[in-house]
Specification:
- This protein is mainly α and 275 residues long.
- Among the domains are: 52 residues, Arc Repressor Mutant, subunit A (Orthogonal Bundle); 124 residues, Orthogonal Bundle (Tetracycline Repressor, domain 2).
- Helices cover 64% and strands 0% of the residues.
- The chain is elongated and about 60 Å long.
């Protein structure tokens, strides 16, 4: 069993080395009578003794535990700490930039202003984003991705084309209401995107419109919808719902749920559905 020095010298390995270099040369018996002079255990030894998991490895578990889910341990421990920290910084920057873009506009907000608003220095932001337009692109990409996911998931629900179209309208409206600041920035600052970024965003917007159009076409084929131009009807429904961000107010006359229901009824009317 190793014997540690007195509390006065119980410190880190570096401090221990400095102490050894400075102390006069004495025998272990005369300096610490009855004690054997040893070095503190190395860090890997301490980690092994305490059974602490290293970064990137799952926590020790009992294979016989029926409640253990290996996916849980991997999700929390397989990502390197540096990557986790970078993702956390990126999310914080996007949240603060989204708020400032909404309040001051894209042109009225600088990277320095974003850093100051978070109580950080500019290197905190520049370590993640080199340009302000890259932040705007990430905000826009996340917004259109949520809209596309809302449409696609609603189309997979059961029921008639009318039921699914109503669900599409409700879910799209929910996105516009719950993420009103992001949607506002998305539409208002679209012209400030880089050309290559704008191509990606427009392609995803087209996928949203096509998904709605395909659902309308399915209803027309089934004799449920009466639409002379499916493409125009899809654009009308999408535009009507997207414009919610400009007039919705949390303290307004209608609740968010009421507005979602109203948008579902209006979308069915545009599709020519007769109850």
């Amino acid at each position: 069993m190793s014997v540690w020095p007195t509390t006065r010298y119980r410190a880190t390995s570096v401090s221990w080395m400095i102490f050894r270099a400075r102390r006069p040369a004495r025998s272990s018996a005369s300096y610490w009578p009855g004690r054997r002079r040893t070095h503190p255990p190395r860090l890997p030894t301490l980690l092994k003794q305490q059974r602490l998991p290293r970064a990137g490895r799952p926590l020790p578990h009992n294979p016989e535990d029926q409640n253990f889910d290996s996916r849980d341990s991997r999700s929390a421990h397989t990502m390197p700490m540096r990557e986790q920290l970078r993702n956390f910084k990126k999310e914080r920057i996007m949240q603060e930039a989204e708020r400032l873009f909404f309040e001051r506009g894209f042109r009225g907000t600088s990277l320095e202003a974003i850093a100051d608003s978070m109580g950080m220095t500019k290197p905190f932001v520049y370590g993640i984003y080199d340009k302000k337009t890259d932040i705007l692109y990430d905000i826009s990409l996340r917004n259109i991705s949520m809209s596309l996911e809302a449409v696609e998931s609603a189309r997979q629900t059961g029921g008639t084309p009318a039921d699914r179209l109503a669900e599409v309208a409700r879910r799209l409206t929910r996105v516009c209401i719950e993420h009103r600041e992001a949607v506002t920035v998305f539409f208002r600052e679209e012209a400030s995107l880089e050309p290559e970024h704008l191509l990606v965003i427009n392609d995803m917007k087209g996928r949203v419109d096509r998904a709605i159009g395909e659902l309308l076409q399915e209803g027309v084929a089934a004799g449920i919808f009466q639409v002379s131009d499916v493409r125009i009807a899809a654009l009308a429904i999408g535009g009507m719902i997207s414009w919610t961000y400009s007039w919705y107010r949390p303290a307004g006359r209608l609740s968010a749920e009421d507005i979602q229901s109203q948008m579902a009824l209006l979308a069915l009317r545009v599709a020519g559905f007769k109850t």
